[in-house]
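Whiteboard transcription, Tuesday session. T.W. wrote the C-alpha cells on the left side:
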C-alpha cells in the first residue's frame, strides 16, 4: 500500500517549504517533493540569496575602490578576487539550503527526493513510487522566459542562473530587459568592472513601478555608468568563441544595428513552471498566461489540489509565495487566514535601493482616486548626510479625503528596510498623520519617512 500523508507539497521553494513547515506545525503529516539536489527553490539556490550575496560583495568592492577615501580611509590598491567572491556566495547559499533541511527534520516534514507528478486527485508519484494525500499543493515556481533568436547556453548567453556563476568579469555585458533581474545583476557586474548596456523594449525601465521613481532610478544608474537603450528590441543574438553579436531594432520599427558583447544576460521576465506535473490529464486549468488558475483560497479547478507562489497569479516574489504558503496551510487546518495583497512590498536591491508598497500615482489616477502626495529627499536628512548617501526620496500617497495611506515609493539608502514601516502602517489602516505623529529616532533614515508623511499635509519640518 502507498504511504499516505495529509499534505503533499510539490516544490520546496519559499512557497512550498514554508507551507510544508506550517502544515507540520499545525499537526498534519506532511511530505514535500523536490527534484533539485537541495531545498529552498529558485530563491535560495539561484535567485534571491545568491544575487544578494553578490550584490553585497560587489558593493563592498565599489566602496573600497571609490567611496572609502572620502571618509578618510585609505586602503591602497584594491583588487578583485572573483573566485573568492563566488566561493563566499556558494557558502551563503549552502548555509541557507542546509537550514531548510534542518527545519524539515525539526518539523518532521518528509522530503521526497525527485520529480513529482499528479497521477490522479489525491495521488502523487515520485520516481516511480506512488503516495497518497488528502491535499496536494503545487508550488513548482517559475523559469525564465525565452526569446526567439536568442539561444541560451548559460555561458555566453545566460539567464540569471548563468549570470550568477560567471568566472570572469565580462568586458561588455549586454542585458536584455530593464527589469529587476537586469538591473540587480547588471549592477553587480558593472561594479566589478564590466561595461553594461541594458536594452529595454519599453521607453522606461521597471514597468509597473511609480513613474517618478523610474525616471530618477534611470538617471542614478546612468550616472553610475550603466548605459540604456530604451524603446529597443533585440531580434537576434549569435554566440561565437569570443563573444556575441546582437541585432537591435527600435521597438517602433526602423533601421537595425549591431552590438558586440562578451556576455548577454536574457532577463525579460519569468513564467510559471508546471512541466511534467501532469496537470492536463488530471484537469487542473491554467489561465491565458500559463499560470495555474486559483480562486481566492488557492483552490485549483480540481478539488483537493491547491497552488501557490510563482506558479499562480500575482507578483513573483519570495515573500508573497511564503505568505501564501502559510495562509494555505492554516486554511487546510481549518483556520481562516487572510492575505492582503495590497500590502505586499517589492524591493530592488541595487544601491540606492528601490522599494514600493501599495498603489502608484499612475494607478490612483487611473482609478480616479483623489490623493495627496508627500515627498521628502534624503539630501535633507542628517543621517543620510553622515553616510554620504544623498540620492533619492520617500514619497507617501494618501487618500485626499480620509488621509489613509494608499502607497509609498522609496528610492534611497536602505529603502527595502524603510518600506516595512509603511507596509505595517497600511496593514493597520493608518493615516499619513498616524505615521507623521509617530516618534522616529534621530538621526535615522526613518526620519525621511516621517517627514514625507508630514509633507502630505505640507508640514515637513526640515525642508
Ligand atoms: P520556486 O522558488 O521557484 O521553487 C519551486 C521549486 O519547485 C524548485 O526548487 C523546483 O526545482 C521545484 N519543482 C518544480 N517542479 C517540480 C516537480 N515536478 N517535482 C519536484 N520539484 C519540482 N524574490 C524576492 O522576493 N526577493 C528577491 O530578492 C528575489 N531575487 C530574485 C533573484 C533572481 C535571480 C531570481 C531568478 C528570482 C528572484 N526572486 C526574488 C523571485 C523569487 O525567487 C521567487 O518569487 C520565489 O522563489 C518563488 O517561490 P516558489 O516557492 O513559488 O517557487
Ligand atoms: P521583469 O518583468 O522585472 O522585467 C523584464 C523587463 O524586460 C521588462 O522591463 C520588460 O519590458 C522587458 N522586456 C520584455 N521583453 C523584452 C524584449 N523582447 N526586449 C527587451 N526588453 C524586454 O523580469 P525579470 O527582470 O526577468 O525578473 C523576473 C521576476 O523575478 C521579477 O518580475 C520579479 O518578480 C522576480 N525578481 C525579484 C527580485 C526582487 O524582488 N528584488 C529580484 C529578481 C527577480
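and on the right, the sequence the group agreed on:
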Amino acid at each position: 500500500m502507498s504511504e499516505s500523508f495529509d499534505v503533499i507539497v510539490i516544490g520546496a521553494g519559499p512557497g512550498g517549504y514554508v507551507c510544508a513547515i506550517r502544515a507540520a506545525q499545525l499537526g498534519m503529516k506532511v511530505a514535500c517533493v523536490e527534484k533539485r539536489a537541495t531545498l529552498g527553490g529558485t530563491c535560495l539556490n539561484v535567485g534571491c540569496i545568491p544575487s544578494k550575496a553578490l550584490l553585497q560583495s560587489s558593493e563592498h568592492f565599489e566602496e573600497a575602490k571609490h567611496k572609502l577615501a572620502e571618509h578618510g580611509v585609505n586602503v591602497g590598491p584594491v583588487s578583485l578576487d572573483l573566485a573568492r567572491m563566488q566561493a563566499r556566495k556558494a557558502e551563503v547559499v549552502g548555509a541557507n539550503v542546509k537550514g531548510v533541511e534542518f527545519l524539515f527534520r525539526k518539523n518532521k516534514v518528509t522530503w521526497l527526493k525527485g520529480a513529482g507528478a499528479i497521477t490522479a486527485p489525491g495521488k502523487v508519484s515520485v520516481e516511480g513510487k506512488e503516495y497518497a494525500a488528502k491535499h496536494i499543493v503545487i508550488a513548482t515556481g517559475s523559469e525564465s522566459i525565452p526569446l526567439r533568436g536568442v539561444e541560451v547556453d548559460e555561458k555566453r548567453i545566460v539567464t540569471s542562473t548563468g549570470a550568477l556563476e560567471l568566472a570572469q568579469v565580462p568586458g561588455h555585458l549586454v542585458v536584455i530587459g530593464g527589469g529587476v533581474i537586469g538591473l540587480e545583476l547588471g549592477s553587480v557586474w558593472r561594479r566589478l568592472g564590466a561595461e553594461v548596456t541594458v536594452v529595454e523594449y519599453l521607453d522606461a525601465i521597471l514597468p509597473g513601478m511609480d513613474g517618478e521613481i523610474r525616471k530618477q532610478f534611470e538617471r542614478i544608474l546612468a550616472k553610475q555608468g550603466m548605459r540604456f537603450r530604451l524603446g529597443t528590441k533585440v531580434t537576434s543574438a549569435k554566440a561565437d568563441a569570443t563573444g556575441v553579436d546582437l541585432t537591435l531594432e527600435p521597438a517602433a520599427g526602423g533601421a537595425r544595428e549591431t552590438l558586440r558583447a562578451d556576455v548577454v544576460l536574457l532577463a525579460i521576465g519569468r513564467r510559471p513552471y508546471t512541466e511534467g506535473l501532469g496537470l492536463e490529464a488530471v484537469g487542473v486549468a491554467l489561465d491565458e498566461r500559463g499560470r495555474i488558475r486559483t480562486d481566492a483560497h488557492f483552490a485549483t479547478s480540481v478539488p483537493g489540489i491547491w497552488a501557490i507562489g510563482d506558479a499562480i497569479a500575482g507578483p513573483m516574489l519570495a515573500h508573497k509565495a511564503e505568505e501564501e504558503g502559510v495562509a494555505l496551510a492554516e486554511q487546510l487546518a481549518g483556520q481562516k487566514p487572510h492575505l492582503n495583497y495590497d500590502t505586499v512590498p517589492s524591493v530592488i536591491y541595487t544601491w540606492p535601493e528601490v522599494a514600493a508598497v501599495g498603489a502608484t500615482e499612475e494607478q490612483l489616477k487611473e482609478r480616479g482616486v483623489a490623493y495627496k502626495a508627500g515627498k521628502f529627499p534624503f539630501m535633507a536628512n542628517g543621517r543620510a548626510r553622515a553616510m554620504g548617501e544623498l540620492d533619492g526620496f520617500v514619497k507617501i500617497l494618501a487618500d485626499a479625503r480620509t488621509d489613509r495611506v494608499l502607497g509609498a515609493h522609496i528610492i534611497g539608502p536602505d529603502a527595502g528596510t524603510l518600506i516595512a514601516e509603511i507596509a505595517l502602517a497600511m496593514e493597520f489602516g493608518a493615516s499619513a498623520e498616524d505615521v507623521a505623529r509617530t516618534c522616529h529616532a534621530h538621526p535615522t533614515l526613518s526620519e525621511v519617512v516621517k517627514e514625507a508623511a508630514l509633507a502630505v499635509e505640507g508640514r515637513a519640518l526640515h525642508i
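Someone added at the bottom: The chain has three domains: 4-143+271-339, 157-268, 343-455.
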